[in-house]
């Protein structure tokens, strides 16, 4: 069988195989033309059609079929007369049977060839998709996992197993799987898996795994119930360490900015592009006695009533135009007195030239004024 497969492959790879088939057709026609009618030479073309189908080339099969039918018909006129006593009706029936046989073989082999080509295209497509998935998994660092709710076993893809530091197994129990993560997160992961099994609730959580060295690697775990099989859970493990580290760096940068702002002798504040305050330093909280959360939402409440309209009008103008904000007005101190402040802010633009946020400051001018006094 192996030798036959090797021969077929060698025959397909031979660039002259089609010409060999055409030559054999001609030889059979010559032999037919030298033989009396009635010897059924037409059926000798059938093996050549089968041979042509091995090439898996529709054009060669089509040409071979047409030539074979033409040769059967032509042989009827070229061959010597049938032996005496041999009825011509049998000669015609012989030739017609040969044509029908060739037609059936042609249709069958053509159908098989088309099916083989579709299967080959499907395999190529699946192979390409698999290669793309593997490439994507390498770039995005993710792998797949599956949980059989009957056996309570989790199957990991090779990529997923590599993401779990120190793990080499691709078959784990739910308990063994949860043990690969930080103790503080095991309970949440176990609850998410249980809810997904019992209530078909999808989940998306992040957990640090337990590597041999610190810091731990953060993984994003996504899971959902398979639509085709409720007994199967499937999901993805993705390396989210870079995202987590980026978020940690952002938090640290925010903490450093807050520490720097709180150490300044002036009030430091930031606002979103729409003018809503997003940060105010501790100095203003201490000065006004208003909690930070309330101050961010209702900072206008500590502005002197006589200044509010002027302050908001100028602030709205700057928000529309991007002009620097520069104005003096009064803030209410904790003891109820109003203190003049010089308040300034500049717009920060993004890469598209749009205002991203505002950076501002407020400096006390040192002169107190009772309500109703202006400046």
From TrEMBL:
Transferase keyword on record: yes
Catalytic activity: ATP + protein L-histidine = ADP + protein N-phospho-L-histidine
Residues spanning the membrane: 14-31, 60-78, 84-107
EC number(s) given by UniProt: 2.7.13.3
Iron listed as a keyword: no
Domain PAS: 253-322
Protein known as: histidine kinase
Top class in the EC scheme: transferase
GO MF terms held by the record: protein histidine kinase activity
Pfam family, one: PAS_3
Keyword annotations of the record: Kinase, Membrane, Phosphoprotein, Transferase, Transmembrane, Transmembrane helix
InterPro entries the UniProt entry points to: PAC (IPR001610), PAS (IPR000014), PAS-like_dom_sf (IPR035965), PAS_fold_3 (IPR013655), Sensor_kinase/Photoreceptor (IPR052162)
